[in-house]
Design a protein that fits this description.
Pfam families: SelR (PF01641). InterPro entries: Met_Sox_Rdtase_MsrB, Met_Sox_Rdtase_MsrB_dom, Mss4-like_sf. This is Peptide-methionine (R)-S-oxide reductase. The protein has 4 helices and 9 strands, in the order ααααβββββββββ. By secondary structure, it is α+β, with helices and mostly antiparallel strands. It has 2 domains: 2-63, no CATH class; 82-167, Metal Binding Protein, Guanine Nucleotide Exchange Factor, Chain A. The strands form 2 sheets. It has a 6-stranded antiparallel sheet. Strands 2-1-9 form a 3-stranded antiparallel sheet, with no helix packed on it. Mean pLDDT is 82; it is low at 1-37.
């Protein structure tokens, strides 16, 4: 809420005297920031991300953190719609590709084409494939292959709930 208040305080200070100021939810604030010339993509500096994301979102999306297994709000969530990047709003996954893997994090077997980038991650003494938002570079989680899940791709995109926001529109 502090971020929203700070951005709305700036808007209030620069607003014409007779204009009505309406407090906006965070996603609208991000849209306002974008229309003010702040580009939310891989080149956006951490100082801007810190004003737009809460501490947990910043830690996971920008510092490649991980939420505890079984704690994310989308782990056992199966509504129809689209999952978007919590950082920049880019559509990443469709609900039809979400499945219950039992791993403790939301699992998807495929991304929206072009929405997710893959990178080799050799941290913690193991080789994994990190997945990030193709637009802003926000850390989503990791993708695993060949685990035998009965999905069309035999992949499991293990995604942090904090990295995504659900949009009920398909």
């Amino acid at each position: 809420m502090q971020t929203i208040r700070a951005l709305n305080s700036r808007a209030l200070a620069s607003a014409p005297r007779r204009s009505a100021i309406v407090l906006q939810p965070r996603l609208t604030v991000r849209a306002m920031a974008s229309s003010d010339g702040v580009k939310l993509d891989k080149s956006t500096p951490d100082s801007v991300w810190k004003t737009l994301l809460n501490a947990e979102e910043f830690h996971i999306l920008r510092q490649k953190g991980t939420e505890r297994a079984g704690t994310g709000k989308y782990n056992k969530f199966y509504e129809e719609g689209t999952y978007k990047c919590a950082g920049c709003g880019t559509p990443l996954y469709k609900s039809e590709t979400k499945f219950n893997s039992g791993c403790g994090w939301p699992a998807f077997y495929d991304e929206i084409p072009g929405a997710v980038d893959r990178h080799v991650d050799n941290t913690f003494g193991m080789r994994r494939v990190e997945i990030t938002c193709a637009n802003c570079g926000g850390h989503l989680g990791h993708v695993f292959e060949g685990e035998g899940f009965p999905t069309p791709t035999d992949q499991r995109h293990c995604v942090n709930s904090v990295s995504i926001k659900f949009d009920p529109k398909p």
